[in-house]
Amino acid sequence: AGAALREPLSRLYPPSSHAPVVGCQAGVRALPPRSHFGYVPIADRLPVPNLNGTQVWMLTGLGSRGLIHHALLGKELAAAILARDESMLHPHVRRLAKQMDLFLSAMPEESLT
Fold this sequence. Notes:
Blueprint: H1 2-12, E1 42-45, E2 57-60, H2 66-83, H3 96-105
Antiparallel strand pairs: 1-2
């Protein structure tokens, strides 16, 4: 990866052509399935049995839209958690149950225990 980046970087900043590569990292960006609105974040209660009497909620898939969605979705998610009512969340961000049903139906039964 360092070799692939060195040549274009040295065109932008010539002194970098002799700089040592200190390290290289890569990551994966998780995106929710595309809807007719594009990549809309997911906010929902996990459709799993309660763990020690607690519920598990999530807000994920913000991507670059997190800049404009984080505050609104965070506020709505906090209200839904306090009320213990996921129906308070907008239906377009509540696609988790459908995705989980598809995922779980494809898994062997013994892997779910």
